[in-house]
Amino acid sequence: MLEIACFEVTSAETACQSMADRIEFCDNQELGGTTPDFYEFLHLKRNYKMPVYVMIRPKGGPFFYSEDEFVQMKNSIITFKEGGADGFVFGVLTSDNEIDVVRNKELLELAGETPCTFHRAFDRTADLEKSIQTLIKLGFKTVLTSGGKPTAMEGKEMLKTLIEKYSDQIEILIGGGVRSKNILELKKFTGGKSFHSSAIKDYDTFVTDDEIKKLKLLSS
């Protein structure tokens, strides 16, 4: 499974016409991804068959949100769900960087049957095994992780552990610097089957079809 992170509609259209299995659609790459424009999302849904998972994140920075920001997240899920979102990507932490069970549960309930991914806020938590057990109990279908390190290559030992212990209970989506130059090593070392990449080559700005095809070929 190959998911491509798309931070603007041009890259999303490239990915939708390429060999990806789904896209994660968001805005503001420099902030690590925030909630995208609703009308750009509708454009993708009306013109392409590619599954679109929507980032629900009102701001960059820490994954602890004010009450107003949390209301924004709830409203976004309602809006994008009505627009036909195929999945949601979010993650709420407490002020001490632990999984916020109450708030995440509330968002999951709003999403209903729409599958949800807990994003790399997961890597901020102190005990990844404890955290993944919490996500499984809450009902997340997927967790996006680099194994608690800045990149997946740096976190590959933990990724291997998580995949061996928990991949039968939750999809472990390997992300964080995943490119065609390292995806084969990550696959072989960790045993992972699901990968997340922006498919942006060094010194480039947009997703490239060539990189997506290489990633898909090497991950299959």
UniProtKB/TrEMBL annotation:
Pfam families: CutC (PF03932)
Principal subcellular localisation of the protein: cytoplasm
Molecular function terms from GO: copper ion binding
UniProt keyword Cytoplasm present: yes
Transmembrane segments: none
HAMAP family, per database record: CutC
Name by which UniProt lists this protein: PF03932 family protein CutC
